[in-house]
Write a structure and sequence with these properties.
InterPro entries: Beta_tubulin, Tub_FtsZ_C, Tubulin, Tubulin/FtsZ-like_C, Tubulin/FtsZ_2-layer-sand-dom, Tubulin_C. Its main location: cytoplasm. The chain is an alpha+beta fold and 131 residues long. It folds into two domains: 89 residues, Tubulin/FtsZ, C-terminal domain (60s Ribosomal Protein L30, Chain: A, 2-Layer Sandwich); 38 residues, Orthogonal Bundle (Helix Hairpins), CATH 1.10.287.600. Helices cover 40% and strands 19% of the residues. It contains five helices and three strands; from the N terminus they run αβαββααα. The longest helix has 16 residues. The N and C termini lie far apart (42 Å). The mean pLDDT is 94.
């Protein structure tokens, strides 16, 4: 049902990126529901989520939640939802990757694969600085 799907959409365990959305704020959100679902109920649920969790949504982007529906459910399911959220929490993932890169770059790990193809070590230093 729509309330359960809406709850699952915002659950950190269901995110494909290893970052917790509760550690950031949503800039924008899009949700595409598939199957026989009442758009009125979906809109109400999405509004409830925004009202209960207003601290997790930026206030300076109006109408930052988009919902859509496709009447045809995925094979084997009555309904499903695809969620796409643009959250500042992604910085956690970038920080981890940056820390891992820095540790490997200090050891010059795997660097030869790139330098032998014509890249310069300075390009990596510059890219690290720009992050």
């Amino acid at each position: 049902n729509a309330p359960e799907l809406t709850h699952q959409m915002f659950d950190a365990k269901n995110m494909m990126a290893a970052s917790d959305p509760r550690h950031g704020r949503y800039l924008t959100v899009a949700a595409v529901f598939r199957g026989k679902v009442s758009m009125k109920e979906v809109e109400e649920q999405m509004q409830n989520v925004q009202n209960k969790n207003s601290a997790y949504f930026v206030e300076w982007i109006p109408n930052n939640v988009l919902t859509a529906q496709c009447d045809i459910a995925p094979r084997g399911l009555k309904m499903a939802v695809t969620f796409l959220g643009n959250s500042t929490a992604i910085q956690e993932l970038f920080k981890r990757v940056s820390d891992q890169f820095t540790a490997m770059f200090k050891r010059k790990a795997f660097l030869h694969w790139y330098t032998q193809e014509g890249m310069d070590e300075m390009e990596f230093t510059e890219a690290e600085f720009n992050m």
